Every structure is written in structure tokens, then in C-alpha cells.
């Protein structure tokens, strides 16, 4: 039986929460027609998008740097 890594599971749940919050904000922006929209929805959508993008882009850069060969 494998030992459950609590830190990894918690990290996945946090990022899932960030992604769901961003999706909720985008959905709210898309579905509210002819109603005033709070700037909070735009802010939440932007911050969640930036956070998820930063996470994956930083992993991509780390992979490129560690596999780069200096000639």
C-alpha cells in the first residue's frame, strides 16, 4: 500500500479550487447579459488565469532549462 502524500494532494485541491474559481468567474461574465457586472468577476477570472498560466509556464521553463545543453 502506497503512502499518501498529503502535501501533493493538498496542492492538487488548491489548484483545482483556483481553476474552478476562474471557470466560475468566466461563466458569470459570459452568461450575464444586459446586467451590470461587478469588476470582482473580471479580477477573479484574470488572477486565476494568470496563476494557472504561471504554474504551467514555470514548469515548462524549468524543464527546458534542466534539459538544455551548453555547447
Question: How does this model look, in words?
Answer:
This protein has one domain (6-67). It has 71 residues and is mostly helical. The model has no long low-confidence stretch (mean pLDDT 85). The chain contains 2 helices and no strands.
Features:
mainly alpha, 71 residues, flat, 2 helices
List the helices and strands and how they pair.
Elements: H1 6-31, H2 39-67
What is the averaged pLDDT score? 85
Cα-atom radius of gyration? 18 Å
Structural class: mainly alpha
First and last CA, distance: 45 Å
Query: Would you count the extended β strands for me?
Result: 0
SSE arrangement, N to C: HH
Short précis:
The chain has 71 residues and is mostly helical.
